[in-house]
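just leaving the lab so this will be short. what follows is a protein written twice so to speak, once as letters and once as structure tokens for the fold. can you read through it and tell me how you think this chain folds. thanks a lot i owe you, the record is right below.

___
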Amino acid sequence: MNILAITYTFQAYALLASLITILVITGLVIFLSNKKNKPLQPSLSLDYLNQLYDALGGSTNILSVTSEHRRLQVKVDQMKTVDAVKLKALEIPAFVKGKLITLLIKNHTQDVLSFLNDRRKEDS
């Protein structure tokens, strides 16, 4: 091979590498600009927490409340006292197993746990 052929081959590879770099950077810019920011977590209102407390039957019905990750486990005395319509209106997914209600609280789980426990103590 002569030197001229080697030079053209080198220039072709350099051009190809430049094009690939430009494409990667362009793709990265597009990806990062389209990335959605996490929505702000809505703050808890006292009204919302009171509605949840009432839906679970209040202090006479709530025996204990514990937290597991983003779930609250509420042990109740009587399932008849729990208002499923209110829980559904609050858009809280709930799973029932015997007298144990598992509530999926996506945001502010510890705040809801603290409120329920404090309110139970106040009403007792």
Notes: The first strand starts at residue 62 and ends at 68.
